[in-house]
Design goal:
By secondary structure, this protein is of the alpha+beta class. 31% of the residues lie in helices and 28% in strands. It has helices spanning 30-44, 49-56, 58-61, 108-123, 137-145, 178-181, and strands at residues 9-12, 19-24, 68-74, 77-88, 91-99, 127-132, 149-150, 166-171.
């Protein structure tokens, strides 16, 4: 398994005044990755086979494929997570972002997204894509706030989930899927 450096990012939320530490994947947090994702998936949708595959073996499905998983820690408790999945050297996907219900609306998701954007920039990534659903109003608003734009031609993403209804892109180099807008 590829050894990951620990990206640490301690920040205080202006809204809630809690200190959240964002760290990269550690095997001992694997169960939290699965449980946090099950929490939101079961509340709004259903667990699809691709979810089960990724959540049951994140090392093989994400880390070993040059992707990243981040955790938001409050003291020593995992309260949020997200994934930066590699498509190719220029394109990564923000995926599996969730914060446990008790801490939603307190800036934790924003810190996770900021960490993903920072990591992608360090890697020289051109575009971060994501897929979401119109039911997830707060998440959609956060993505827009962070600069993600709706993709005109979502077929470019090769989506694997039934629940996806909105596809977005954050262009880190100012040319997000322009070629798809011509089609």
């Amino acid at each position: 398994m590829k050894k990951q450096s620990h990206l640490k990012n301690k920040q205080k939320s202006k809204k809630s005044q809690i200190t959240v530490e964002i760290i990269e994947y550690k095997p001992e947090y694997r169960i939290h990755y699965k449980n946090l994702n099950y929490e939101w998936l079961e509340k709004y949708f259903e667990i699809e086979s691709i979810d089960e595959k990724i959540l049951s073996n994140p090392e093989k499905e994400i880390i070993e494929k040059n992707g990243f998983i981040f955790f938001a820690l409050l003291e020593d408790n995992v309260i949020g997570t997200c994934t930066l999945m590699k498509h190719d050297n220029a394109h990564y996907e923000l995926s599996k972002m969730c914060v446990t219900e008790k801490y939603q609306g307190k800036g934790v998701g924003e810190k996770l997204i900021d960490t993903v954007i920072s990591k992608a920039s360090q890697l020289g990534v051109e575009k971060i894509v994501l897929s979401t659903n119109s039911k997830l109003i707060a998440a959609f608003s956060l993505y827009k706030k962070k600069g993600f734009q709706i993709i005109e031609n979502p077929l470019a993403l090769n989506s694997n989930y039934k629940r996806e209804s909105i596809h977005m892109c954050l262009n880190l180099n100012d040319n997000c899927y322009r070629e798809n807008k011509k089609k």
